[in-house]
Write the structure tokens for this entry.
Amino acid sequence: MTYDLIIFDNDGVLVDSEPVANAILAGYLTELGHPTTYEDSLRDYMGAAVHRVHDLVRERTGQRLPPEFDETLHERTFAAFERELETVDGVTDVLGALSAAQVPYCLASSGTHQRIRVGHRKTGLDLWFPEEIVFSAQDVGRGKPAPDLFLHAAERMGITPERCAVVEDSVLGVRAAGAAGMDVYAFTAMTPAAVLQGATGYFASMKELPELLGLR
């Protein structure tokens, strides 16, 4: 089928940020006395807003992360983005195909607006995503896996949920899209399809996505 709106996750879908960000998060948590491997970080935090890190650490240890945690984490992550962040291979071709077909698209990310903008300026994606089509978990009360962010994005774009398709790469994102009543296509570059249960379809390369979205 064809859709009236395509909603992209950001980290791991548009920008290849998950390896960078999760390595930094795992290292920082370990430094603070909460031993975390890179694999642990991917499993527990990929696709989530930073409040999930606070929630899980407190749930598991009874301890609170320091007040400066968010600021320090963001500083370290942004510095790494400025050094090494790149777009996901082939994603600008997908955006070009959507533009040529005049299919509206937007972004709905668990990351903050600042995190999104830092990455987009570095990679040139700011040319594809003006501020009015960028939505963050900051804009709603609950992040993924709650459906709030995707429903907010659809409402702001003027499209009903059943006419939307979401492009995601995380368990939390797939669950959120399903809860919002939207089709969701899961990118399996980092997370196996077997883990991303409940998706409408799966793809391992951005070259496969246009056909899934009904563009050819």
